[in-house]
Amino acid sequence: MYRCLARGKTRIVLALVIATILAVSGFLTGCGKKINPGDVTLTYWCNLAATASGIMTSYTDTEWNRVMFEKTGVKVNFLHPVFGQEKEQLNVMIASGDLTDMIESAFIQYTGGVVKAHEDGLILDITNLQKKHAPNLMKLYDNYPDLYMEMADEEGRIFQTPLIKGHDSLRTFQGPALRKDWLKKLNLPEPETIEDWYNVLTKFKKELKVKVPLLVVLNDLRVPGFITAFGITSAYFVEDGKVKYGPIDPRFKDYMKEMAKWYKEGLIYPDFALKKDAKKMDAMIMGDEAGAAILMANSGISRYMSLMENKNPEFFFGAVQYPSLVKGEAPRFLQREGLVNNSGCVAITSSCEYPELALKYLDYGYSKEGHMLMNFGIEGVSYEIIDGEPKYTDLIMNNPDGIPRAAISYQYFRVAGPGPYVQDSRKNKQGRFNEKENVDIWAKFTKEAVEAKSEVHGILTADETAATSSKQLEVNTYGDEMFIKFVMGSVDVEKEFDNYVARMEQMGIKDIIAIKQAAYDRFVKRYPDVNNPKTYSVEDIFWK
User: Fold this and answer.
1) What is the Cα–Cα distance from 295 to 299, expressed in whole angstroms?
2) pLDDT tens digit string along 303-326?
3) 281 three-class SS
4) Pairing of strands 160-165, 340-348
5) Which residues touch 178 (CB under 8 Å, ≥6 apart)?
6) What are the tens digits of pLDDT across the range 96-105?
7) Is the pTM of this model over 0.85?
8) CA neighbor of 44 nearest in space, from 66, 75, 70, 83
9) CB–CB of 484/216 below 8 Å?
């Protein structure tokens, strides 16, 4: 049952006053009484992973949450929205005023983001509170200043605890992949350019009679992969200090012309514009009907290789480098997340009577012990140290009850999904088909991508958000429609591109770019080090 201090503005003001008192006085209530953590049960709202739902209904009774209680003395009950109804149920909870004490990831989609959520009285500013009650997290901020830059707003305030990608290899987990056994059969090298890809897909179709040389859905053609070979993305990016929007860039026309050619020649999945059917795509890939795709490392490549190991020993679906237009040239963009992943950030709400206890619980995940718990679970049960490296036991990798790794892992640790901790890259070095080999291929041009300084930093104000949200929605809808028409050839991109851009401008795309440019300029002024990006191995602090 959700707790709240009061209703409306009274509840919000009172909660913020209590938080201020606690920040000064330590583990005391507003009445000056000592808090006995064992008498308090906090509530935590987050998604329940689909793969975990087969063996549990809540994270409350997991082994990792039991250990968290033993180590922190803080009891936490998890509450989960119905799968697919997360946004709607969050809105209902907000409207009711009955907020859980902690909320994970939900404010990614909140209009105006975490800053607006704070201004609306929903979540606390934990900037000062964490200095006293989150020593492990503060140690990370002190050692890795870029973390603070990613978490703080333009006024230097922090509203959430982060999910941190502990190693650069964890920031890239998806990319182009193809049947390498078929490449060998055709005596072809791995493709490095868009022209190479065209030749490989053509030979798959003509010489091997592959039904769908490139199995992609609409989003696959917009994420980093083929579009980025043209020096753009399908969203906003920075080039030479200027914010640009890929879909109106002249290079987008070149990309559309190439994709239209591939589609016309039957190289692209003809139903790419339909809603993704995961089971159908699985069947096509494992049924020798598809030659290439945009895949994730673990849930994609490693899973296919594992499932096909005994069925077809020759089957080899593997990662290939991100392509460019010119051989030997490094692409400027990869699928690359920030040092902080917003999907795992946790906010403490204004309904929380004991924010210092919430921070104590969250902070444990950033300690040395908590790091091992979040990533590997319980030593001697879910993992063992072998030759100095943590290795998952058969309980996880080859569960005696036949429970899949993707499900049983949630019982013992959180690294299979989001949460408040630092992800450890050693999780990728597990099993017969580990992720690291494929990720290393995709991450080949990480240095060049970092040096490109293409990320659009900056947080829009509430007024800026209001001025752009409806315009962006209209732009997105029209952009989706035209993307499909350009690829399918029902609209000739060569003839209609200028009209398409003009229509985007009528919808206000230039206004949106100008607002994002202003936010970016403000951010750079406050955090000039953003123009000197670094690569970090945050996980190293736990292994020194």
Assistant:
1) 8
2) 899 889 889 999 999 999 999 999
3) helix
4) antiparallel
5) 191, 200, 291, 292, 293, 317, 318, 320
6) 989 999 999 8
7) no
8) 75
9) no
